[in-house]
Amino acid sequence: MFTIPTLGNCVIPTPIKTGLFVDDTRSLLFDRYIPGVSGLKETEDPVTMEIAGPRENIYFDPSKVRAAIVTCGGLSPGINDVIRSMVMELYYRYGVLNISGIRYGLQGLIPSYGHPILDLTPDIVKDIHRTGGSILSSSRGDQDVDKIVQSLYRMNINILFCIGGDGTMRAAEKIAGETRKRDVSISVIGIPKTIDNDLSTLDQTFGFDTAISEAVKVIQCAHVESKGAPNGIGLIKIMGRSSGHIAVSATLANNDVNFVLIPEVPFSLQGDKGFLKALEVRLRRSAHAVILVAEGAGQNFNPSREALGTDPSGNVRLFDIGIFLKNEIEVYFKARNIELNLKYIDPSYIIRSVPAAAGDSIYCMLLGQYAVHAGMSGKTAMVVGRYDNQYVHLPLSAVTSRRNVDREGPLWRAALAATGQPPSMLSE
Amino acid sequence: MFTIPTLGNCVIPTPIKTGLFVDDTRSLLFDRYIPGVSGLKETEDPVTMEIAGPRENIYFDPSKVRAAIVTCGGLSPGINDVIRSMVMELYYRYGVLNISGIRYGLQGLIPSYGHPILDLTPDIVKDIHRTGGSILSSSRGDQDVDKIVQSLYRMNINILFCIGGDGTMRAAEKIAGETRKRDVSISVIGIPKTIDNDLSTLDQTFGFDTAISEAVKVIQCAHVESKGAPNGIGLIKIMGRSSGHIAVSATLANNDVNFVLIPEVPFSLQGDKGFLKALEVRLRRSAHAVILVAEGAGQNFNPSREALGTDPSGNVRLFDIGIFLKNEIEVYFKARNIELNLKYIDPSYIIRSVPAAAGDSIYCMLLGQYAVHAGMSGKTAMVVGRYDNQYVHLPLSAVTSRRNVDREGPLWRAALAATGQPPSMLSE
Amino acid sequence: MFTIPTLGNCVIPTPIKTGLFVDDTRSLLFDRYIPGVSGLKETEDPVTMEIAGPRENIYFDPSKVRAAIVTCGGLSPGINDVIRSMVMELYYRYGVLNISGIRYGLQGLIPSYGHPILDLTPDIVKDIHRTGGSILSSSRGDQDVDKIVQSLYRMNINILFCIGGDGTMRAAEKIAGETRKRDVSISVIGIPKTIDNDLSTLDQTFGFDTAISEAVKVIQCAHVESKGAPNGIGLIKIMGRSSGHIAVSATLANNDVNFVLIPEVPFSLQGDKGFLKALEVRLRRSAHAVILVAEGAGQNFNPSREALGTDPSGNVRLFDIGIFLKNEIEVYFKARNIELNLKYIDPSYIIRSVPAAAGDSIYCMLLGQYAVHAGMSGKTAMVVGRYDNQYVHLPLSAVTSRRNVDREGPLWRAALAATGQPPSMLSE
Amino acid sequence: MFTIPTLGNCVIPTPIKTGLFVDDTRSLLFDRYIPGVSGLKETEDPVTMEIAGPRENIYFDPSKVRAAIVTCGGLSPGINDVIRSMVMELYYRYGVLNISGIRYGLQGLIPSYGHPILDLTPDIVKDIHRTGGSILSSSRGDQDVDKIVQSLYRMNINILFCIGGDGTMRAAEKIAGETRKRDVSISVIGIPKTIDNDLSTLDQTFGFDTAISEAVKVIQCAHVESKGAPNGIGLIKIMGRSSGHIAVSATLANNDVNFVLIPEVPFSLQGDKGFLKALEVRLRRSAHAVILVAEGAGQNFNPSREALGTDPSGNVRLFDIGIFLKNEIEVYFKARNIELNLKYIDPSYIIRSVPAAAGDSIYCMLLGQYAVHAGMSGKTAMVVGRYDNQYVHLPLSAVTSRRNVDREGPLWRAALAATGQPPSMLSE
Description:
The structure is a homotetramer.
Chain A (H helix, E strand, L loop, with lengths): L11 E2 L13 E3 L3 E2 L4 H4 L5 E4 L5 E2 L7 E6 L7 H16 L3 E5 L15 E2 L2 H4 L19 H10 L4 E6 L1 H16 L5 E6 L15 H20 L4 E7 L6 H10 L4 E3 L13 H12 L1 E7 L26 H15 L5 E5 L2 H5 L5 H19 L5 E6 L2 E6 L14 H10 L9
Parallel strand pairs in A: 6-7, 6-9, 9-10, 10-15, 11-13, 11-14, 12-13
Antiparallel strand pairs in A: 1-5, 2-4, 4-16, 7-8, 15-16
């Protein structure tokens, strides 16, 4: 079983009045596939996960506890829904009245930035889910853990809810470790956010469905543009640093994409089996093409072969594959004296900043509620997430590994079928 | 393990070229909760489900097989996506060229109706997912099983894909039984469709997410209307014959609903604890209210207490709770001489007839592909569905039971919190 | 020239700093068609209209004036845009700080209702255009003019902006007349609102474009429903009390409607040339049909032939042509033993309560600004409106007449072509 | 009066059965403002325009005439609506059965390109208005007039409908001139298309309303992004080569823009009154900003001061003001050591490629019908357009002049008010 740290014994009866409580011993199988008829018994000691939900007894006294919420990293649809849900649950279900909104990510916990705290109340948050982004704003990058813990201590924060990606989860782990070292009882609960949807131990990250819906609209426009001129090409660069989930899902939802390029599937540009030749074949046959490239695809083409460094979030800076492809395509067809009308679209900012669609709204609401239950019961150094359709607790460290698009799985095979692109565009 | 009938031995190698195949012995646990640490071993013989996916050997020879697709019952977003996916998978992945589209549901298999067959090809179906409804059209109601089997036999159909609800799954079971009795090798595969999302053994039915998105737009309008006049009320009747999943999910996605009434939660009209009094209290405080009522709620109010009979699909006809509530509310407030401006909205037809949203499109595509894999491998009398995030095979009989909104579960509790309505509106 | 009454001499310099001012003598031709080459000179004394816009000198001292805004009648997209625009223009361009929002229409000016005044400031109105409806709420019906004028006087209101329909314009005229009689200097400025778009002396009413966009979505759903079942009929009742502008425009924007029925074009039900026979012919040929009926069409079918009275706005109550047609159609086909699947949709409330689309937003903003210019310059008993693409002043009385769909004009002819319905469905 | 050339006498009775016909002598005043009370009489010989509409007698025999449609230049919402309308009107109202769709703009009339002709029928065009772009595709650039006229002659084309921009109208004029010279009776009718909406003698170009609606969505995203990070800036480059109509209208429709930069209003970057200083002031006060820049703004900043040449359409290539501003802003704030998070969005391709919104659909339908009436009555070298809400005929030469945003007019003044930007950002 994944072990979730706790701050101590839960002896305070929860003020939640109705509903079935969840017991810490009730857990969920991590791997529930049975390879043969007698298979189950062989797994003597299966890996399990703690079930999320309200506990009958909690650790913090709602009348005294002070919670804080911080949002870090890039935008994703649904952040405001999660914030809203946590505030509503803390306030109305537990009676927690002191909720601090930390502005501009972890910067908001470093006094020298001077970002004021936003007191979060039901009245403040009641309509924020109708708008994209984060009312708390966000920032990228690590901050000094010592100073963060001092701020939490000085502000009397007992529970810190961190909405963010990989870097934020690592920071949350450091904060949780530091508070334990100092024997300060602060619960640190993570709500994982990555629009790339590449966390291995979770079903899907919030905002992903909404992002796909928006991506589909852009692809339709690229399709129209590609058909609007002789040898028209719609080239779209989309999110996906190390995995192609957004690119593949958008391809499947729409069926207008002719080439989808993702980090998991290397490809060549030149050569008889390469991408440019395949594109030429496509144009000669159909006179137009839509290309969807994940930002992390084709990083091997970086001509300078030198490191681009890291961004403030600690992510490796990516070589701009979109602009690179645009140029390579134009050069290739110019050399062959073929008229080309390439329209390049980079829609990331208009995909990730919309309000959450209905399904994501409900998902975010439940994530927020389960995060509050976990925090109030004194859990720490953990995240809430949905795993095989069930909300569970997982250690912070368990959600940082990467989940790739499986090249043998049904999604990639379906994407190959939907695009009609060659199964491999890798020249020897 | 749920046993899935098969037509015989699979000895023909599948033409599917890439990808991992699934083995019939690989299965999924039905209940993967472990009540205590040593719990798993106690479950000596757990219930399991067959995993969906392509098999290494198949039963039907793709060059000779003839498939048919029929769509029955009411509309739901995504039907065309499922049809499209099945045709594409049959045609391009298996090489099945003969695919018959049966028009107007089971009527299309009864010669006397005279509905012509529509030959389905990639060219016919390639853009149909952009439109709501079913290109095959649909109809309600049972038809004579003998005549259906005779038609299938006469048309040389080997696989029949049935997209439909409860009644359709029952008909499919009868057809499968009759073909076995006659020793005719016809595979009957169901793809369950119910916009009500009330099937107990499946995660979610296709079209549900899209329906919620549309319902949310209508609720926003009702909210605006309710605030636009003194004591304005927006009263919306929504789908949900025996369960309130749509009503509850739409309530949670939107947060504008003040009263949500569902079949699972009985309520009184009159009395101090009744709904009308609660509504009056709300209006005196806030001067407007939005009420969302599932069509199956409050059936006990049927004043004539007499059976309304059944519709052609065999469903019990419902008493019109929307119009009934409209009248009761107007009478109540008129009697108290309180100005009232009630706007009644019945949006069902404009919710269920839209094209599938992106998430539902991908879901429908995968459902269609798994249905084809099942049919080609000679499975019969079964449905494909997603269970705990995994695609599985289930016997037709296993998906007809009803799943209700759990009155102690997180969704209903969240709905109570979102509306602020009294936990019980049941007078003694 | 249409004469616009004024309260007196404009001697106060306007605080508007930039821009060209408009002179009262600059006016616009009412009829600018020239029947022949030498035609113009024959029109010795043409009817003209005063041009709207800021005047170099104004009547009211911005530092002392107190403005009020009231919204009456049914909702229409863009009301909040007009309110927002007037508040912004009064506040920032003229420096008027006292702006009272009258709640619930004219009720808000009758003390006994007890509706509190809402002080309108830029901060209050800055985001209201993102929501449908009216933040001031509305009500229908006349109120006592004496009491209204007493309220205005007691509240020291100098300019009253009335957003509303016919009834409101009549009320505005009475208020303006009464204030003149009492020698109270109150400017009464109307901004005509009718989603029916049937005012003869204005290009188009605000909200109309938005309404058509929403209607088109509903028609698409009805079309899908009609094709989803044997002899499917989508029957939609839409706004349009005495004119069919919405019905005809939605028909033209969409091209899915097969029958459009409007008040201006009488039709028979029975008989060889009647509507039901035409519908039967259509179903026999195409097996589905979409019917769009304006609420004011076919009022002659009222079986009781008795007056239905008037609603609180003074409008004659309409016989429900939608439900009537639904029943007549069902009876007709039942008698002929023809299966029929009729889906009835009444979408008015979800059409008129959405936020204004971009074009309407800009239109409403300009209407609001011109209304403020008119009010500040002491005009009264007038409306602002767009006439032949130019913003003008018109007497209140000039905008109450009705504009019908011209049965010989391009719109109706295009609607006949788009639907394919018989040019006349009137039996002898 | 603007004189419209005709091919000859109209003696063939039109097959149009109903409706009022329009007479060539009935015309519309070009300037209908009256500067003073007695003003009209002074204008002895006013400029007038021919009214568009069906004529009682036509020039071409419908049974023999052959029409062609060509679409040139960049995409704009509604092109397919115009094509659809012309085909429907030619086919059903006039009985013209031979309608040729020229592929890829004027290239389609040059045999060496080898683009095949698309025969246009009601069946082909009936659903094309649901998709953006042009089913005929398009191309940029002039082609040899001789070859074009030879092709028209060889194909027996009698009427050529040209949908396109400035360059296309100039080409149309040359074609019309060449045909007259050769004494070939070909009517050349233009339907002006420019998403920039900058034609001086027309109310508004088709697609403009739709474009604004899309632009508003992008601006909302930029606004969310700008608030999502410390000193967040959303910088959007939008269409508008020589006029800022799109930028200004989108600003007004949305109210989220803080700086709008257009070609008509020069600005400085540096200096106390310059844009960068104003931006710094804004960030210090509000910590975020949305900047909307028309592509033609700030061309004076072109650092190389050299000509960029012209594109294939003959338009001067623009210096990329978007990227330039992005860099200048980043340099400025880096030099001042101020954290900045700039998100750059270039949405042109996703704005211009959507299907027409409802209002534009109706407008395009009427434009198409009037173009057909003009062509059938033998007019040539002219365009149809809406002027002051009335459809008229104008000589091709009359619509090539440019209409700018009036810096003293209500739109720009409203834009200044909506953004709060300084009235002038021009340093001495």
